[in-house]
Specification:
alpha/beta; Rossmann fold; 10 helices; binds adenosine-5'-triphosphate; ATP hydrolysis activity; nucleotide-binding; membrane
Length: about 250
């Protein structure tokens, strides 16, 4: 088991407010880590620290380190554009660009300098196949992505990430805006993708965490209270607060 991302005593302030308290966790390569916890406990904030999305907020101050393959992503020499290519993110609501399916996928490779049509064609097909969307859109590649269903749009957003060959996928409640069938497709996809990628997923859905993840971390008020194999968290949690939360007695 290889550690892909190692987080050491990561603290984050929004202004004077401490939102993450010395979080330490190892994220194992080719696994799915689910992050659970009540609203406002810091899950999304933590997820965004993994590819420095919080840097975009002025008031944010970060302490500690995040090592990607042993290298601190907060080192001043790190190129954040390259970092976000290696660690991509999918959001709660699918956010396709208002352009064709094809151009959505080709966008990232073009930005990174790929201009050859034959290569882009190949990337588009491979990425859409990888996100289990190819069969549904192969005849409408040049139609607007805005015409796809919500579930298809979310898989398009995943394909858009795959097109730039990331290593880690961050997913912030990727199914929260989707119906049960689209949710099932995304869950199947996540299970398939972990063979090639390392995945960190925030979810409010306990069953989803139990179904798709290998490891689970429970957050509460900016603390990572407990982290372990998902089976262990759901059957033998060590901390009473974790048990209360997963059994619905929280609060
Ligand atoms: N840009 C921001 N500026 C100031 N405070 C923020 C900002 N973003 C989040 N916070 C605060 O940080 C804390 C953690 O928020 P965060 O969104 O990470 O929680 P969460 O666990 O992902 O919640 P949810 O499950 O509701 O999405 C909250 O108290 C929130 O109000």
């Amino acid at each position: 088991m290889n550690v892909k991302v190692q987080v050491n005593k990561l603290g984050l302030y929004y202004g004077d407010v401490l939102a993450l308290k010395k979080i330490s966790i190892e994220i194992i390569e080719n696994s799915v880590l689910a992050l659970i916890g009540p609203s406002g406990c810091g899950k999304s904030t933590f997820l965004k620290t993994l590819n420095r999305m919080n840097d975009l907020i002025d008031s944010v101050k970060i302490e500690g380190e995040v090592l990607l393959d042993g290298e601190n992503i907060y080192h001043p020499n790190i190129d954040t554009v390259m970092l976000r290519k290696r660690i991509g993110m999918v959001f709660q609501r699918p956010n396709p660009f208002p352009m064709s399916v094809y151009d959505n996928i080709a966008y990232g490779p073009r930005i990174h300098g790929q201009a050859k049509k034959a290569v882009l064609d190949e990337i588009v097909e491979k990425s859409l196949t990888g996100s289990a969307l190819w069969d549904e859109v192969k005849d409408r590649l040049h139609s607007s992505a805005m015409g796809l269903s919500g579930g298809q749009q979310q898989r398009l957003c995943i394909a858009r990430l795959l097109a730039v060959e990331p290593e880690v996928l961050l997913m912030d409640e990727p199914c929260s805006a989707l119906d049960p069938i689209s949710t099932m497709k995304i869950e199947e996809l996540v299970t398939k993708l972990k063979a090639s990628y390392t995945i960190v997923m925030v979810t409010h859905n306990m069953q989803q965490a139990a179904r798709v993840s290998d490891y689970t971390g429970f957050f509460l008020s900016g603390d990572l209270v407990e982290q372990d194999k998902t089976d262990t968290i759901f059957t033998r949690p060590q901390d009473k607060r974790t048990e209360d939360y997963i059994t619905g007695r929280f609060g």
